[in-house]
């Protein structure tokens, strides 16, 4: 069994915790569908990683809610927040269950492929190679959305994960990037990240 | 406690069951967010109704999978389908948990509103009045998407629920319609359904 991180209370606003949990749970569902559709081990692993993060956030949120409630009225009002947080946690669990099909090598049944194929957008998880033209560029100057219809939705650098990175974020070599877009754009983006294509059309 | 329907096996293709479960679970999450955001009792009730339907579909799917498996290889391959179905069921449970906040009158905490307000689209559930201009029209001729950016995502008529109704579906008086769109379009659509506005701009 994997040893899990000890959860220690950190003063993070409940609001920030909830927004991150909601964003992550939605991202995880999309990732899990994509993982199943393309039988992608890296995407499935990302879902499992994110699930641990959502679990941690859920613990932190519960602790913060306990500390914030000074009287019965506070508690009544905050219970609505913890219920929503628990629901996003449940959604992230469901995504991890789906990812497990890929990780356990159960294989994706044609029926599942059919149910999922309606997705117009594809997701990818790719590591930037040192010779990639993306390295050293800010997201704002790359304009990937305008140029190839690709959105970068997460960057993992060392142990840090940034969801919805900002325009001024600079891509570094070795960044693990999760991106979403039309299949043709995703293919182009992967080649750029892997240094196979060296020119970024403008 | 509400008496639940007895589940009786019906020969429905597993594929159809899974696709409906997936579509419903996604719709329910959107409905639950909208229910919370607008503190809407009708939308929250719709989520609870749909949850019962997903539960029924989950039972039927499990039964169908059991009947379809003739040997160990079939069973190994079908387990991937039942896991995905169980995951969509879990997602629908999470949506129902969120809807319960509205139905129990817990009230929606400002933090939750903030986490949900990013939604650009709004959902509504409205009953068509006998004097509505929509009554007797086919969806195809109404062109609600082109005219006001509104998509009809479900029609409940008596006990029948049609998800993603087709172009040739004719609206009847007393239909309970769930629709999605930009807030201004949704407002216009509600007035048309309620017979308050009698002209459909072309």
Which CATH class of the largest domain in chain A?
Mainly Alpha
CATH superfamily of the largest domain in chain A: Phosphate transport system protein phou homolog 2, domain 2
> What would you say the CATH architecture of the largest domain in chain A is?
Up-down Bundle
**Largest sheet of chain A, order of strands side by side?**
1-4-2-3
| CA gyration radius of chain A, whole angstroms | 19 Å
- Structural domains of chain A: how many: 2
Strand content of chain A: 5-15%
| Helix segment tally of chain A | 7
Provide the structure class of chain A: alpha+beta
Structure, explained:
- Two copies of one chain form a homodimer.
- The first copy, chain A, is α+β, with helices and mostly antiparallel strands and 202 residues long.
- Chain A has two domains: 14-112, Phosphate transport system protein phou homolog 2, domain 2 (Methane Monooxygenase Hydroxylase, Chain G, domain 1), CATH 1.20.58.220; 120-193, 2-Layer Sandwich (Alpha-Beta Plaits).
- In chain A, 55% of the residues lie in helices and 12% in strands.
- The first copy, chain A, has seven helices and four strands.
- Chain A has helices at 14-37, 41-68, 72-103, 110-116, 139-142, 144-148, 183-193; strands at residues 122-127, 150-157, 160-163, 176-181.
- Chain A has a four-stranded antiparallel sheet with strand order 1-4-2-3.
- The interface between A and B is large, with 37 and 37 residues.
């Amino acid at each position: 069994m994997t040893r899990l991180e000890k959860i220690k209370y950190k003063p993070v606003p409940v609001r920030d915790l909830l927004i991150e949990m909601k964003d992550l749970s939605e991202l995880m569902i999309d990732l899990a569908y994509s993982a199943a559709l393309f039988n992608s081990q890296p995407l499935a692993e990302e879902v499992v990683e994110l699930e641990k993060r959502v679990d941690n956030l859920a613990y932190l949120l519960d602790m913060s809610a306990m500390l914030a409630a000074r009287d019965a009225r506070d508690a009544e009002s905050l219970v609505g927040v913890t219920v929503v947080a628990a629901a996003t946690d449940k959604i992230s669990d469901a995504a991890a269950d789906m990812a497990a099909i890929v990780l356990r090598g159960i294989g994706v049944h044609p029926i599942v492929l059919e149910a999922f194929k309606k997705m117009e957008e594809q997701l990818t998880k790719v590591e930037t190679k040192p010779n990639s033209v993306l390295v050293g560029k800010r997201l704002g100057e790359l304009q990937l959305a305008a140029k190839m219809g690709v959105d970068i939705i997460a960057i993992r650098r060392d142990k840090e994960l940034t969801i919805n990175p900002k325009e001024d974020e600079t891509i570094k070599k070795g960044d693990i990037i999760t991106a979403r877009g039309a299949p043709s754009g995703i293919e182009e983006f992967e080649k750029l990240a892997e240094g196979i294509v060296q020119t970024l059309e403008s």
